[in-house]
Amino acid sequence: MLLEVRDLRVEFHTRDGVAKAVNGVNYSVEAGETLAVLGESGSGKSVTAQAVMGILDTPPGKITGGEILFQGKDLLRLGEEERRQIRGAGMAMIFQDALSSLNPVLSVGDQLGEMFVVHQGMRRKAARARAVELMEWVGIPGARERVGQYPHQFSGGMRQRIMIAMALALEPALIIADEPTTALDVTVQAQVMDLLAKLQSELAMGLVLITHDLGVVADVADKIAVMYAGRIVETAPVHDVYKAPAHPYTKGLLASIPRLDHKGRELYAIKGLPPNLTSIPSGCAFHPRCPLARDRCRAETPPLYEVSHERGSACHFWQEALRG
Ligand code: ADP
Ligand code: MG
Predict the structure, then answer these.
(1) What is the pTM assigned to this prediction?
(2) What's the CATH superfamily of 3-90+174-278?
(3) Which atom of ligand 1 is nearest the CA belonging to 19?
(4) Which of 32, 49, 78, 317 is the 20 to 30 Å CA partner of 55?
């Protein structure tokens, strides 16, 4: 297994109390596989990813439990130097906003080239040539002419391509893409997502794709993990989920995406709001919003029940959810 997150726990100590952002997350990704991580804003998707990348802000964040196995090594037990090396060549992250991730005062060519200079001891001139190749690889027209330009001189979509090129430059085994297309126009979103999926399969990388866009997921993911209040509430191969979700929350998420074949129908929205993480509801955290909730749900936290070989649902009444 390329990446295996086991029972990960992360807290934030804030003025309002301890926010339990990640409460025992388990997920795994193999080489060449895409895991989509879904869930409303604030469900712990990014914090989990930051813990995996080793870029969590500590403090205020604190990892209070669990393991993060990358190529068999527990990252939480490695020293800072080893982690830095893995961050360079083993795994890389793509963020939503390229403008704040790229250096505004360095040309794109210098930033791309720097990767090869630092990690591979390449000479400047050769690194520059590699930068042009990379820009061509990610579909930037006129790469040779534009290699000396600065990030702000590129459109949002082109900048996102440059960030993808940066992340993939050293051909890492794992990519974590945190809402990589959210800030882009809809048409550009699809192009950037297609590019990412294409390069991922070219390089047989593992991909953790964080998104709240279920529309994207069906096309590119192999399996999904749905997060709610810092836990995985459903995990399954992607096609199973679309056919029949086994958790009422997943069902709500699915019902709230616009579908071409359902034009004109009113969109469903899950009632209520995600919980305050300093005081997560008892039992199943979703119970205040759940149409299936009953006494047991308020009292007893559901484990991840095995729905089938590759599927799990953290709902006491998953059979009922599955039946529809
Ligand atoms: P998302 O699923 O939208 O990516 P995050 O993982 O970013 O959610 O955040 C989950 C929760 O963790 C937030 O709702 C917040 O309570 C807490 N959190 C995240 N980052 C911080 C921070 N820097 N300081 C305090 N709390 C934080
Ligand atoms: Mg996030």
Answers:
(1) 0.94
(2) P-loop containing nucleotide triphosphate hydrolases (3.40.50.300)
(3) 16
(4) 32
By CB atoms closer than 10 A (0-12, 13-18, 19+), residue 82 is: middle
d(CA 91, CA 2): 10
Ligand 1, atom 1, residue with closest C-alpha? 42
Which of residues 74 and 219 earns the better pLDDT score? 74
Query: Integer distance in angstroms from the first to the last C-alpha of the chain?
Result: 34
35-89 per-position pLDDT tens digit: 999 999 999 999 999 999 999 999 999 999 999 999 999 999 999 999 988 987 8
Can you tell me which atom of ligand 1 is nearest the CA of 277? 16
CA distance 24 to 63: 11
Please list every protein residue whose CB sits less than 6 Å from any atom of ligand 1. 12, 14, 19, 21, 39, 41-47, 57, 60, 277
